[in-house]
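Weekly modeling sync, notes
Attendees: S.R. (lead), two postdocs, one rotation student

Agenda item 3: backlog of single-chain predictions. S.R. asked that every request posted to the team notebook include the full sequence so nobody has to chase files. The rotation student volunteered to paste the first one in as an example of the format we agreed on. Action items at the bottom.

Example entry:
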Amino acid sequence: MDSAVKSRRSYHFISNQPIISDEKIEEIVNLAVLHSPSAFNSQSDRAVILLSENHRKLWEITEETLRKRVSAEKFSVLQRSV
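Predicted structure, as returned to the notebook:
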């Protein structure tokens, strides 16, 4: 049992390809921010949504950061999943 727990790995693949429209993303985020509990009902939460070119720029920054922190072998696996 110990070896099963120690050797267990979870692989979560993320992608820069949207699966829903930008409008739906905005709608969901706006609803989440509006209806999330806040201290004294102050509704002080804010969210930043990066779409189109800004979204691509974030992915480029993410890729550059991962390339510095992940071994070349693991990075190539990550690239194939995107």
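Discussion: group reviewed the output briefly. The chain has a mean pLDDT of 82.
Action items: rotation student to repeat for the remaining queue; S.R. to check formatting next week.
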